[in-house]
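Researcher: Can you fold this with flavin-adenine dinucleotide in place?
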Amino acid sequence: MDIFKKLDVEKDTHSKNSLEIKEKVKCLIIGSGPAGYTAAIYASRANLNPVLYTGLQMGGQLTTTTDVDNYPGYPGGISGPKMMEDFKRQAERFGADVRFGIATSVDFSGRTHKVTFDDNKVVEADAVIIATGATAKYLGLESETRYAGMGVSACATCDGFFYKGKTVAVVGGGDTAAEEATYLAGLCKKVYLIVRRHELRASKAMQNKVFKSLNIEILWEHQTIDLFGENGVEGATLIKKKGTPEEETVKIKIDGFFLAIGHTPNSDVFKEYLETDQVGYIKTIPGTSKTNVEGVFAAGDVQDPHYRQAVTAAGSGCMAAIDAERYLSELK
Ligand SMILES: Cc1cc2nc3c(=O)[nH]c(=O)nc-3n(C[C@H](O)[C@H](O)[C@H](O)COP(=O)(O)OP(=O)(O)OC[C@H]3O[C@@H](n4cnc5c(N)ncnc54)[C@H](O)[C@@H]3O)c2cc1C
C-alpha cells in the first residue's frame, strides 16, 4: 500500500540523505493509544485530514493487557487489543490516515513544525498532537515478564479489582507506591509494601495514610529477586538487608505483584523544544492541551503524571484535537 497516497509527496533531492521524503499535512498525530486515536477521531470529523503515526507499539499500552473493565461503554469488559482495534477502526471510518512510523527527531523552531519519522521521512505540519504515552518502570526480573498479565501489574487502579480479598505486594517507597498500597488496602485482605530503604520517600501525608492502614505491612530494606508460581504469581523471593551481615532470604506468599517505582514519559525526542517537568512529563497550560510551542499540543499519559488511565487519555486526546482545530482556524 502506498502510505503517501492521499498527500503530495516531494522527494528532497537536495537533502544530505537521499532517502528523505517530505510532505505537508494540516494535523499530525504522534502515537496510537487512546489519546492519539481519540484525537484522530475528532480531528478527522473536523476536516483536519489527520495523519497519525503509530510508533512501535500499535494501539499503545492497552495492547499488553487482557481485560479492560473500567472503560465506559463496555459493560461486559473488553480485551485491550480488541478495544484499541475498535479505536483505530473508528478513526479510520472518518478518514484518519494511520501509518506505521516512529518520530525520531523534531524541529519546532518555525511556524511550520517538522517531524522526522524513522530518520528519513520529514512531515511538516501546521499542528502537531503528541500522544506518545508513558512507560512503567519494572525491576528487570525475568519473572516479571513471565508473569505479565498473570499476577504482575504496574497499575493498581487498573488491576486492583481482580485481587479483591487477596494478598498482594507493592514495590516502591515514593508517593505512587504509598498511594497504590493504600488503594489496594481498601480492596485486598493484605498488602505488603516492599521498600528498599529504611524509610519512605513519600510525602508525610501519604506516609500517614500507609501507617494508618492496618492491613499494610511494610517490609523495610527488602529487595525482590524473583517471583514464583505454577500458573501465575503465588509468591516472591526477597533479600532482606542485602550486603550486610544480617542479610537473609525471605519468601512471601502473594497473589499479585504491583510495581510502583515510577513511569518514564516518552518525551525525549521533544525535549529540545518542549518544557517538561523534572520527570519528563510534557507541561501543558492547565485546562488545555497547549504546550509552550504554538501549534504543538500534548495529550494522554505523556503529559499526565497523576491519572494515567485510558479514559483520561482519550478525554485529553479530544481536547487536543479541539485545541488544534481552533488554532488552525485562527491561522487562516
Ligand atoms: C498492563 C496495563 C494495563 C492497563 N490497564 C488499564 C485499564 O484496565 N484501564 C485503564 O483505564 N487504563 C489501563 N492502563 C493504562 C492505560 O493503558 C494508559 O493510561 C493509556 O494507554 C494511555 O494512553 P496514551 O494514548 O496516552 O498512551 P499509550 O497507550 O501509552 O500509547 C502511546 C503510543 O505512542 C506511541 N509512541 C511512543 N513513542 C513514539 C514515537 N517516538 N513515535 C511515534 N509513536 C510513538 C506508541 O507506539 C503508542 O502507540 C493499563 C496500562 C498497562 C501497562
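Model: Folded with flavin-adenine dinucleotide in place. Residues 310-331 form the longest helix (22 residues).
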